[in-house]
């Protein structure tokens, strides 16, 4: 069943768990994410990035996600991840995405609030929700890159959220996209300050390979949505390399199914860590 972020994250906030935002890169990963949610009776956020849209087209990416969401017996949010191509984000809302992320970290500071506020009002009118990122989240992952120096300022974040009316806010507290960088460390004291200042659910990006204890602490400090992409790609690729060693396998379905199952198991692991099992 297709939902937006609002009810999903409000419940997570009240009951102190987080819902995973899992990136779909192919049909197989989309199937695996939904299968994991159903097995665990967990809500899931199926995320589509600009790179995935370039790979399979907005219409096909949405058709896959929507078919899976409609079939699912758990709540599924179809979310545009890291929207920097704003006309493309608008198109995704028109086609039926239930949620979008606006990444305004590359936009001049004095234009951000007006732009996001107007966008949020359009999205709400269509029944969709908006997550926003103001300060760059570190690391690099294909289309998404950022500088580690820009951590979230709690006061500025509070003003941004109040004035734009966004539904969720992505924090920059030291996590990085992609494979973990040396010395990557989350600033949990800063997270506690942001949590006091900002009254919408908080989002943690770049959470692959983050220490489990740190993830649990971050959830206790207001993180309600946690984005995972790299861990899923690594699981897929590891298994595919193993499968391809068998020269007798030359059917793409037999090559891809074990990798799809590995993504499902990886998502299940995260669902359990985030505490969203049985929360559907
Ligand atoms: O946060 C970044 C996402 O993992 C998207 O990655 O642009 O390679 O699809 P991508
Ligand atoms: P990782 O790939 O580092 O898990 O980050 C995912 C993400 O933040 C998607 O927006
Ligand atoms: Zn991200």
TrEMBL record:
Sequence positions that bind Zn(2+) 1: 82, 177, 205
Molecular function GO labels: aldehyde-lyase activity; zinc ion binding
Binding-site residues, Zn(2+) 2: 103, 133
Keyword Ribosomal protein: no
Residues holding dihydroxyacetone phosphate: 178, 206-208, 227-230
Active site: 81
Annotated GO biological process: carbohydrate metabolic process
Keyword vocabulary terms for this entry: Metal-binding, Zinc
Cofactor remark from the record: Binds 2 Zn(2+) ions per subunit. One is catalytic and the other provides a structural contribution.
Gene3D superfamilies in the cross-refs: Aldolase class I
Cofactor: Zn(2+)
Protein name listed in UniProt: Tagatose-bisphosphate aldolase
